[in-house]
Amino acid sequence: MSESKPPFPPFTADTALAKVRAAEDAWNSRDPERVALGYTEDSQWRNRDVFLTGRAEIVRFLRDKWERELDYRLRKELWAFSGDRIAVRFAYEWHDADGQWYRSHGNENWEFDARGLMRRRYASINDLRITPGERRLHLPEGSSAVV
């Protein structure tokens, strides 16, 4: 298989940060197919209480997620790295169809294969209701489109 996503493990501080930024950019695109390309074909996920295996399940999950979580905007922060693993802290904001805003935050543990594709992703996430005035993450000025 020739598919790969640099940078590759083992990670340094710079390459781990580059991997975090690439993941943040992909997720902020809100394009399930683009996001799924960063994972192995048989990638294993735990997202809250949902367990997924493989890209097809990841794409379905993300499509459903972004149909519910409107105007989604995410920030990730490198927390730790070693060898083929990276840990991140994150926060994202979104609103539901009724206009209620939320800030979701938590931690993710990632494990990569030698080609730089994520083979395991374990996410623990908590949600907090917020008012529009409490938002911290905004789309670029004048944009409500996918970034």
Task: Give the termini separation.
Answer: 30 Å
Largest sheet: 6 strands, mixed
Rg computed from alpha carbons, rounded to a whole number of angstroms: 15 Å
Sequence of secondary-structure elements: HHEEHEEEE
Query: What is the average of the pLDDT values?
Result: 94
Instruction: Give the tally of β-strands.
Output: 6
The global form is globular
How would you write the strand order of the largest sheet?
2-1-6-5-4-3
Coarse structural class: alpha+beta
Number of helices: 3
Structural commentary:
With 147 residues, the chain is α+β, with helices and mostly antiparallel strands. It contains 3 helices and 6 strands. The chain has helices at 13-28, 32-36, 55-68; strands at 39-47, 50-53, 70-82, 85-95, 101-112, 118-130. A 6-stranded mixed beta sheet has the order 2-1-6-5-4-3. A hairpin with a 2-residue loop joins strand 3 (70-82) and strand 4 (85-95). The longest helix has 16 residues, at 13-28. It is globular, with a radius of gyration of 15 Å. The model has no long low-confidence stretch (mean pLDDT 94).
Keywords, separated by commas or semicolons:
single chain; 147 residues; alpha+beta; 6-stranded mixed sheet; 3 helices; globular
What is shown here, in short?
The chain has 147 residues and is of the alpha+beta class. 24% of the residues lie in helices and 42% in strands.
